[in-house]
Amino acid sequence: MKRIKLIVSYDGTNYCGWQIQPNGVTIEEVLNKTLNELTGEEVKVIGASRTDAGVHALWNVAVFDTNTTIPPDRIRPALNQKLPEDIVIVDSMEVPTDWHPRYRPSVKTYEYYILTGEVPDPTKRFTHCFTSQPLDVEKMKEAVSYFVGEHDFAGFTRRESLKKNTVRTIYKAELVQEDNVIVFKFKGNGFLYNMVRMMVGLVMHVGRGSCAPQVVREQLDVANGRERLQDENFFKLTAPPQGLILKKIDYKNPL
User: In total, how many domains does the chain have?
Assistant: First the structure.
């Protein structure tokens, strides 16, 4: 038995996220089915990041165990011949049998794209969040800066995630504007369920002038954050999924 590591890229538009669930097709489900066909075995992949429905990835990581005689580097082209066009294997390689994509120290990079203007661009409807409302980019940049460092992000996740450790370290949090596109860039040692989308949603709220940039600092206060999670209106600030992309996962010790 050997363990194969896959680098997976996908357009999440047509999928109900990564993780298998009863209400729709997922990336994990398609990978399992395709690997079963390729190897003739009952294969189940383990993914590094369980992206939400509609979220994209350029560099997610998954592993699976197999007895196949197919050389590890040939699994990539073999899978790509069978997978739908919106899922691509970037690389395939053998790793130690105890190598686990979720439990190894890593740095994840996410980006979120907002398209601004009077009318939406139909060619970007699946990759950008559109808003016609004016946004104060300078105030948004200040708001984003408060995310950097080690914080308890209990105020930036769903209630069901509060049973877990909610402390994360954000190494980079910045916002850049390129013509009529605003790009959020986040790099950290981990992200909670809906965390990036809730961070972006609150900063957009700042950009609309609905609150001051310091609201981010207030929300990072554990007591305030947990209290606000009881307010259903807060969840309405969560940015839509299509603007979010998992850019890369870097492991400190690749093997």
Answer: 2
